[in-house]
Specification:
It contains 4 helices and 5 strands, in the order βββββαααα. By secondary structure, the chain is α+β, with helices and mostly antiparallel strands. The protein has 2 domains: 2-100, no CATH class; 103-224, Methane Monooxygenase Hydroxylase, Chain G, domain 1. α2 packs antiparallel against α3 (162-189).
């Protein structure tokens, strides 16, 4: 601590803290931007102690040890709140915003999901309905295994996020391809192959168009419609 002649004091301390907040909103996850706060409340009333921010002293360090976030702007503020004694006490707040590194989510989650969807769609170009069932079923099992792999990296929340919507949509469409392949194979066995072929011509294009509409809808409802928190 450094004490000046006018009664002001400068106190320096180093500590490690894990920040959590009940006001986080993960609806846009992983495209969300979160606001973090560090609050320091004085023990004594403002008549004895009052916090005053010093320009240039409160800032983010270059090495915070957090690999998941990209830290942006920071700011400080002071206010008065009711203390444990029931009297007004000084409160110093240091806030900063952070956004996620998207490279991880693009390379480890979105690209594999896009490949799973692409393989599901490519099965429609096979003329052998039996092989479609085999490939679509194997693709669905791959997605289930992939879902278990990434489940540990997803936040466990009581509401749906953008990532949840994408994963569920991929799962539904993968299961839908298996179901349609089985139905076409069943129609072929029952002597309705010509009808199955006619329907199949439409599903080749309906499948990607429907998927595109759902993808745009998910982006609108979970990302575009919700501003940065």
């Amino acid at each position: 601590m450094i004490v000046f002649s006018d009664g002001q004091a400068v106190f320096g301390e180093r500590f490690t803290v894990k920040l959590q907040a009940p006001e986080f909103n993960f609806v846009r996850y992983p495209f969300d931007t979160q606001t973090f706060f560090v609050h320091v409340q004085a023990l004594y009333p403002t008549a004895f102690m009052k916090y005053v921010p010093l320009e240039g002293f409160s800032r983010l360090g270059g090495k915070l040890g957090e690999e998941e976030w990209i830290f942006d702007k920071s700011w400080t503020s002071t206010s008065e709140v009711e203390g444990s004694t029931g009297k007004p006490t000084s409160l110093f707040s240091f806030g900063f915003t952070a956004r996620r590194h998207l490279n991880y989510y693009v390379l480890r989650i979105f690209v594999p999901l896009a490949i799973i969807i692409l393989v599901s769609w490519l099965t429609f170009f096979l003329q052998d309905f039996g092989k479609r069932v085999d490939i679509a079923g194997a693709n669905l099992l791959i997605f289930i295994a992939f879902n278990f792999t990434i489940s540990g990296d997803l936040p466990r929340l009581g509401y749906v996020t953008f990532m949840d919507a994408v994963v569920v949509t991929t799962f539904v469409f993968s299961g839908l391809v298996v179901t349609m392949s089985v139905v076409f194979k069943r129609m072929e066995v029952m002597g309705k192959e010509s009808l199955a072929r006619r329907i199949d011509k439409f599903t080749i294009w309906i499948y990607p168009l429907t998927l595109a509409v759902l993808a745009i809808s998910c982006w609108y409802w979970f990302v575009a419609k919700h501003p940065h928190h």
